[in-house]
Amino acid sequence: xxxxxxxxxxxxxxxxxxxLTLAFFLMRAAPGGPFDGERTLPPQIEAAxxxxxxxxxxxxxxxxxYLADLAHGDLGPSFQYEGYRVSxxxxxxxxxxxxxxxxxxxxxxxxxxxxxxxxxxWPDTIVDxxxxxxxxxxxxxxxxxxxxxxxxxxxxxxxVLPAGGWRPGSVADMLLPVVALALPQIAYVARLLRGxxxxxxxxxxxxxxxxxxxxxxxxxxxxxxxxxxxxxISHLGPAAAGLITGSVVIEQVFNIPGLGRYFVQAALNRDYxxxxxxxxxxGSLIIACNFIVDLLYGALDPRLRLA
Length: 307
Known about the structure:
Blueprint: H1 2-29, H2 43-52, H3 59-71, H4 86-121, H5 126-140, H6 143-157, H7 171-200, H8 204-211, H9 216-244, H10 248-253, H11 259-268, H12 272-300, H13 302-306
Helix pairs in contact: 1-12, 4-5, 4-7, 4-9, 4-12, 5-7, 6-7, 7-9, 8-9, 9-12, 11-12
C-alpha cells in the first residue's frame, strides 16, 4: 500500500503540469484579453499595462516566466483585481468554499446513506419506490431551480433564514446554500448505495449470514454495507472536489464570495493568472480526493489491497 501511495503521489506532478500547460495556452488562444472592456484604452496606456504584466513578450517566454514564478510559490498578480495577488484572492475565497463544500458533503453522506439503506432494506415496496422517486427528482432538478425555491419558502415565505449574504461564523447563512448544494449529491449517494446493497445481498457470504439466522438489518450493516460503499466512494472522489471548490450557481444566487464565483469572473474577464491559480487548485483537489478514494478502496476491499 505504501508503494502504491508513493506512485500515485509521484504521478500527480506530471498530471498537474499537463493540466496547467493546457490551461495556459487555451486561455491565451481565446478571443479577447485582460484589458478589453466597454471603454477602449488609449494605445499607450494599453501598451504600458501589457509591458507591466509581461504580455508583450513572446508566448514561450511568458510560459517560462510563469513556471519560474510558480516554482517559487508565486501565482502572480491578478489582472482585474488591482493590487491583489492571486494567492491572496484564493486564500480569501477558499475557506468559504471549504465550509460550504464540507457541509454539503457531510449532509449528502448522512442523509443519502440513510435513504439508500432504508430503500434497500425494503426493496420493491412503496417505501423503496417513493424514496427512489424523490432521489430521481433530486438528480433531475438543477441547482438554479432548487436554490430560488428554498429562498422563496424559507426566507421570503417563512422568514426563518436569510435569503443571501455571508457573515463569517453564521450558521444561518450556511443552511440554505449547503442544502441546495447537497441535494443532488444526496440523491446520487442514495441511488448508488441502494444499488450496491442490493447487489451485495446476492453474494454467497450474505446468503451464508442469512442462513445463520441473522436479522436482515444486521446482514445489511455487518456484511453487505462494506462492499456496497465502493461505488459511493468512487463517486465521492470528484464530487468532493467539486463541492469544495464551490458551486458557481449557488454562490451567485446566495451572493457568497467563494472560489467558484472568482473562477467564472476571471474566465469572463480573461484574468489569466487567476484562472490558472483556480485550475491548479481544482486539479490538486481532484487528485487529492481520488488519492483518498484509492486508499479507502484498499481499506474496504482486501483484494484491491493485495493487487
